[in-house]
Amino acid sequence: xxxxxxxxxxxxxxxxxxxxxxxxxxxxxxxxxxxxxxxxxxxxxxxxxxxxxxxxxxxxxxxxxxxxxxxxxxxxxxxxxxxxxxxxxxxxxxxxxxxxxxxxxxxxxxxxxxxxxxxxxxxxxxxxxxxxxxxxxxxxxxxxxxxxxxxxxxxxxxxxxxxxxxxxxxxxxxxxxxxxxxxxxxxxxxxxxxxxxxxxxxxxxxxxxxxxxxxxxxxxxxxxxxxxxxxxxxxxxxxxxxxxxxxxxxxxxxxxxxxxxxxxxxxxxxxxxxxxxxxxxxxxxxxxxxxxxxxxxxxxxxxxxxxxxxxxxxxxxxxxxxxxxxxxxxxxxxxxxxx
Length: 339
What we know:
This protein has helices at about 45-50, 100, 145, 150-160, 180-190, 205-210, 220-225, 245-250, 270-275, 290-300, 315-325; strands spanning about 5-10, 20, 30-40, 65-75, 85-90, 90-95, 115, 125-130, 135, 170-175, 195-200, 215, 230-235, 250-260, 280-285, 310, 330-335. By secondary structure, the protein is α/β, with parallel strands linked by helices. Helix 4 (about 150-160) crosses helix 5. Strands 3, 4, 5, 8, 9, 16 and 17 form a seven-stranded mixed sheet that branches. The chain has eleven helices and 17 strands. It folds into two domains: about 5-150 and about 305-335, Alpha-Beta Complex (Quinone Oxidoreductase, Chain A, domain 1), CATH 3.90.180; about 155-285, NAD(P)-binding Rossmann-like Domain (Rossmann fold), CATH 3.40.50.
């Protein structure tokens, strides 16, 4: 008789998640099986649930911010052992042989396996991945609060490494939400002078608490004009259209506007808004296992953690609605309560 995993799955686009059992098949020699303790709820789960990206297969089990313990290992597994605390993010595997993998850029592997694309994710009691993507969780970090770091955290930390952000830089963060409140913490501890951009003045005090030295209303053209030409790096964490030209205008010469929020609409910018100040518009997808481990070490060293709201996994539909309605402050985490 095969192994059975318990999970919560949607049978169709936007359908309520219901209890779901499935046989994952034999554990591959290069795989780790993780007993899920906590799983964060990310906006990408909402997008996949509603098939906004056109790649969802049903029944669909969301969940790609897993924290738990290794429950089983294949014969070729290296680096982790049964009982060890680990986490799993957006990626569950990569080919390990292409130039990207061999150069340490596993997240850029053209054959990378996403945790919730054509496979079942972490809204379950167990989930599997290639051993390289089961990243050890430092003992100094609390598992309940750390699960969002495996997607939200690395999404905003990886650009600091990839874009060469310096401690002497003046950096901005657009959006004080699930990603943005982590980005403010990372940039502050990185040593930057940090400006938070928010469409709501009500988040000003919170932005300062998370690490912003300055807060600017992103809907106020006068406030944006006041800081024109002053920032070396701006990280956009939102998934909505913005006054892109105005934000490019906030950059100093050789400045960079970097996108990690999945904006579905095209980003219209004129060539001269980039050419005149030798500016850059760029984006990154999460990060490699190595950089994820660096992010976790940095978080442990500086006491960085997301602000979380915890729901039992059996209340998954309430948690999804809480996020969809924009009420999350700031990341939602599901606690495994399968019998």
